[in-house]
């Protein structure tokens, strides 16, 4: 069985979390590391936005500050995510890896099987959003919130989206990261998204709650972050057919992450570039 790295970096700032993901991608592109699965959390709780989102028009930055949230732009696409009570994962692997299909959608499917096995490990009957049969139900997302609708092959429990992922490909390497929601604060999320008025906000929030759910909303016993780590580590190992071996960031990864944190993800030039 192929051995991949398993790295738990614990809790970091929003800028450092995104910097570590990119540093791992860049060092892997140089052939210096094995494919990796990384778990992490956020301090403080953070609103991240997709690469193509417009911070000034889509996000209420005053509310972000009022709630004491961190803020960062991801290198991946997608919509706004509130990283609070969740486990975040990232996966780094070469596009040329035998297990990785050439298209983004098919790669999502392969990686999502790891998430699917994780949900099974915690006793939830999850399924992958089918790009054909589920389109009518979810249609086009109605707000700037990521969990407003699932993308192809994202995870659904009881008909609602329970994990959101985004992917980028750079220098021949796939980086996919995503949120595994333990609990969800829809009120806070919709407070920090710019909407025309309260009536529209309430309508979109209701629509969102009809489409999204957190793990602890559908489990009889609450799931802790540590329990989630064990289950989803097992899930990725089983779903990808690899052995995940405990590891740490290399010194080169750490140094590059520090540089990217200061010069890129911690800068207004990056976070407010649109």
Number of helices: 10
Helicity level: 25-40%
Q: Terminal Cα separation, in Å?
A: 44 Å
Arithmetic mean pLDDT: 92
Secondary-structure element pattern, one letter each? EHEEHHEEEHEHEEEHHHEHH
The name of the CATH superfamily reads Bira Bifunctional Protein, Domain 2
CATH topology: BirA Bifunctional Protein, domain 2
Indicate the radius of gyration in whole angstroms: 18 Å
Helix and strand arrangement:
Elements (H helix, E strand, L loop, with lengths): L2 E10 L1 H16 L6 E7 L3 E4 L5 H4 L2 H6 L3 E4 L7 E3 L2 E9 L9 H18 L4 E3 L6 H4 L16 E3 L2 E11 L2 E9 L4 H6 L6 H14 L13 H16 L2 E4 L4 H15 L2 H4 L3
Parallel strand pairs: 1-2, 1-11, 3-4
Antiparallel strand pairs: 2-6, 3-5, 6-10, 7-8, 8-9, 9-10
Description of the molecule:
The chain is an alpha/beta fold. 38% of the residues lie in helices and 24% in strands. It is built from ten helices and eleven strands. The strands form two sheets. An eight-stranded mixed sheet has the order 7-8-9-10-6-2-1-11, sandwiched between helices.
């Amino acid at each position: 069985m192929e051995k991949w790295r398993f790295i738990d970096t614990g809790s970091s700032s929003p800028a450092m979390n995104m910097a570590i993901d990119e540093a791992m991608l860049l060092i892997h592109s140089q052939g210096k590391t094995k494919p990796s699965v990384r778990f992490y959390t956020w301090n403080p709780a953070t609103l991240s936005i997709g690469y193509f989102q417009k911070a000034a028009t889509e996000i209420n930055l005053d509310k972000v500050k009022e709630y004491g949230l961190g803020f960062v732009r991801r290198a991946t696409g997608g919509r706004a995510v509130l990283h609070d009570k969740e486990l975040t994962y990232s996966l780094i692997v070469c596009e040329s890896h035998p297990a990785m299909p050439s298209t983004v959608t098919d790669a999502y499917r392969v990686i999502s099987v790891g998430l699917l096995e994780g949900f099974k490990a915690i006793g939830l009957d999850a399924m992958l959003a089918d790009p054909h049969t589920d389109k009518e139900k979810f249609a086009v997302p109605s707000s700037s919130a990521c969990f407003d609708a699932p993308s192809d092959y994202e995870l659904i429990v009881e008909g609602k989206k329970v994990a959101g992922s985004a992917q980028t490909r750079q220098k021949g390497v796939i980086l996919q990261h995503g949120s595994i929601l333990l609990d969800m604060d829809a009120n806070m999320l919709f407070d920090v998204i710019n909407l025309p008025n309260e009536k529209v906000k309430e309508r979109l929030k209701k629509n969102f709650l009809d489409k999204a759910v957190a793990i602890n909303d559908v489990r009889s016993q609450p799931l802790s972050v540590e329990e989630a780590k064990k289950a989803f580590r097992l899930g990725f190992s089983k779903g990808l057919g690899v052995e995940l071996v405990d590891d740490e960031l290399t010194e080169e990864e750490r140094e590059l992450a520090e540089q990217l944190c200061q010069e890129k993800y911690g800068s207004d030039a990056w976070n407010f570039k649109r």
